[in-house]
Amino acid sequence: MTDTKLTYQLADTVLLKKPHACQVNNWEVLRLGADIRIKCMGCGHILMMPRADFNKRIKKILTKANDPVNKKLEHYLPKENIALPK
User: Fold this and answer.
1) How many CB atoms lie within 10 A of CB 54?
2) Backbone torsion region of residue 28, taken as left when φ is above 0, otherwise alpha when ψ lies between -120 and 50, otherwise beta
3) Contact status, residue 58 vs residue 27, Cβ threshold 8 Å
4) What are the C-alpha distances in Å from 9 to residues 21, 33, 36, 85?
5) Measured between alpha carbons, how far is 1 from 52 in angstroms, rounded to an integer?
6) Does this model's pTM top 0.70?
7) How far apart are CA 27 and CA 13, in angstroms?
8) Residues in the chain with pLDDT < 70?
9) Which InterPro entries does the entry link to (predicted)?
10) Taking every pair of C-alpha atoms in the chain, what is the biggest distance, in angstroms?
């Protein structure tokens, strides 16, 4: 059995297996660590989940950080505007 790990980073847009209640299925990664914070690109709802749960739910990476395609989305936050811990 081969393990194909997806390498996602801060500000990437990812596709999860199940859609959000607003029927949008793409999320932006806002925080990485033991817990991962993601934001729905449809309604802007922010969700935090353990990394293990996120790894089970992720289907694929849609766009990488600061991709020009993301700038058209209403709830997109550029990587340089994401608050980093000090």
Assistant:
1) 21
2) beta
3) no
4) 24, 11, 11, 16
5) 19
6) yes
7) 5
8) 1-4, 84-86
9) DUF951
10) 40
